Every structure is written in C-alpha cells, then in structure tokens.
TrEMBL record:
This is Glutaredoxin-like protein NrdH. The keyword Acetylation does not apply. Belongs to the glutaredoxin family. InterPro entries: GlrX_NrdH, Glutaredoxin, Grx-like_ET, Thioredoxin-like_sf.
Length: 79
C-alpha cells in the first residue's frame, strides 16, 4: 500500500471521478476527496493547477493529471 499523499478533486455524478475512486479503493490506496461543488477552496485549487476537467489527481512525485488514467494510477501501486 502506498503511503503517499493522494488527493482526488471530484464532483457529484462524475463517471471518471467514480472510476478513479473505485480504482484507488480496489487497490487499498488511501486518498482525500475534495468536492469542488462543496468547497470554493477546492475549486480554486483545481483552477490554480490549470485544470478545467475532473477528476484531478494529485500525489507526490507525479505531475498532477485529470481524468481516469489507470496508467498513471498504477504508479501509486508500485510506489
């Protein structure tokens, strides 16, 4: 299991967000969820990172990315 800090920026009814969270759950990777509809701060953080699509995934040692990207999420398993 990874002990890296993982943050997933998400919103309700977002299929790619749900796929991303399911991937993390299935691989026992702990993560923090930041809902941009519940938090102005989370929305501002996503914009500051330069993204307009969700989910946005941020974790140590990897460039933040958006969308459901199993190829990049795999790096968390081996980390």
């Amino acid at each position: 299991m990874s002990n890296k800090s993982v943050t997933v920026y998400t919103k309700p009814n977002c299929m790619q967000c749900n796929f991303t969270k399911k991937f993390l759950d299935d691989n026992s990777i702990r993560y923090e969820i930041k809902d941009i509809q519940e938090s102005e701060v989370a929305l501002a953080e996503v914009k500051e990172l330069g993204f307009q699509s969700l989910p946005v995934v941020v974790f140590d040692g990897v460039e933040p990315f958006f969308g459901f990207r199993p190829d990049l999420l795999e790096q968390l398993i081996t980390a």
